[in-house]
Specification:
The chain is about 10% helix and about 40% strand. The protein is mostly beta strands. The protein has one domain. It has a six-stranded mixed beta sheet with strand order 2-3-6-7-5-4. Strands 8-12-13-1-14 form a five-stranded mixed beta sheet. The radius of gyration is 17 Å and the shape is globular.
Length: about 190
């Protein structure tokens, strides 16, 4: 069984939102969604501004995906504890300057490993790019488990912004009681 890892929009308080600032403001985040192992080194932390989408929406989600994929150190350790070994992480600084609030316990994360595992015949989707890969928007995602090779966590080649996790990873994350994560079940052949 597989799940799409997502943020939970139904939590209280609502989570901060995040946007790039500083030196990485104009950097294209596409290198972090291709699923490739990155050889580039970054000599300073990535910088992000935290802002409240709604009044008092200042919860700290474990996972942000509004600019670059950013995860808390706690979530990264939990993923590794579940056996995930295809993560690269880079230091990040998250700031709410209006409140002089700074967090350094988050990382920009690159997930390397892309697998074309969607069963397009059993999925319900919109093919945004018209090619059946990279930018497919799934309403319902069916996974062909034979194609996953039992991977614990990977980017879906048909929709590279979707992060897919194995049921064992989901169970481990649930045991950690992360408040802001959501797991959307995939249909399995």
């Amino acid at each position: 069984m597989y799940y799409i890892l997502d943020d939970n929009p139904f939590t209280e308080p609502d989570s901060y939102r995040m946007r790039s600032t500083g030196w990485n403001k104009d950097m294209v985040d596409s290198e972090f969604i291709k699923g490739n192992y990155l050889t580039e080194k970054f000599d300073k932390p990535f910088e992000f501004e935290l802002w409240e989408y709604e009044h008092n929406g200042n919860g700290m989600a474990e996972y942000f995906y509004e600019a670059f994929p950013v995860m808390s150190d706690e979530l990264i350790q939990a993923l590794k504890g579940a056996g995930v070994d295809n993560l690269q992480s880079y230091p990040a600084v998250l700031k709410d300057v209006s409140k002089n609030y700074i967090r350094t316990d988050y990382k920009v994360v690159n997930i390397f490993g892309t697998i074309a595992a969607a069963d397009m015949e059993k999925s319900d989707y919109i093919d945004i790019g018209g090619m059946g890969t990279i930018a497919v928007g799934f309403k319902t995602l069916a996974i062909d488990e034979k194609k996953t090779r039992n991977a614990l966590l990977f980017r879906l080649a048909e929709s590279v912004t979707d992060i897919i996790i194995h049921e064992s990873v989901k169970q481990h994350l649930e045991s950690c009681n992360f408040k802001y994560l959501r797991y959307r079940r995939c249909i399995v052949d």
